[in-house]
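Shipment paperwork, digital attachment
Item: protein structure file
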Amino acid sequence: MSETATPSFPKHLLDFRDWSRRQVESLLETAQMMQEVLARPVKKVPALTGFTVATVFFEPSTRTRISFELAARRMSADVVSFSGTTSSTVKGETYRDTLRTLDQMGIDAYILRTDAAGVPYQAHSWLHKPVINAGDGWRAHPTQALLDAFTLREKLGSLEGKKIAIVGDILHSRVARSNAELLPMLGATVVACGPAPLLPGSLPGATLTTSLREALYEADAVMVLRLQKERMEKGLPPSLPEYIAAYQVNRERLGWARPGAPLLHPGPMNRDVELEGTLADSPQSLVERQVANGQAVRMAVLYHVLVGKS
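Attachment content:
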């Protein structure tokens, strides 16, 4: 296949191990076209007419679920919504039995979210339909990384040679793992920063540091992650005031990055904890843009896994 030829696409989006840079870039180009659809007075195209998409969320979610469901409906797919908290799983039914039951009802693609790492990977062997990972445990959240990359490219033009700092609870973050996998594929350097108890032993694709100044120094963009308060109850990190004192991204510290460096946060956000609240509403913030772009990116993902061409 030549570099300019239209690439074929993997049937699933579980992470980026089966995806090439060319496939990712082609998907992001499709997302740009989907943005144009979303800018129209009537935000709907017939691309997925006749397909039925199931959002199967064994873990609570607001923005990811709504974003996926709107994305599917914008392309005229039928959507079935499943919540683990109101299903037979609370009576002891297994993930496999639940999914196999749904599969008898004519579902064409599954969007799965679980608090257990690996379920989407197992699901693609139980089902013979496209599976999209909408977040599994600490492992991966590939569509969040795609919308982050799309938003960064929109702002920076290209990620080639850019330094992206990711700050916060890296250890428990599937967003950090997927971004560390995707952003280097697109030419960026990733530096992940947090207190030692919230850093993994290693993170393929990223350099780890406990020094916030080192991470932010001349960064082209800064991504802040939610500090999960339940970790503090377990002593990770020692205390909220200590975390804020050492790692909160505030106006002064953001000045260590390149002038005007865009600021991202995947949400939900703890204002004035991991991020100074006024920064979230500042011109440097792309937080709301990330949410808006999420729908276009997920439309592109659904289109590619179901139709398989750009």
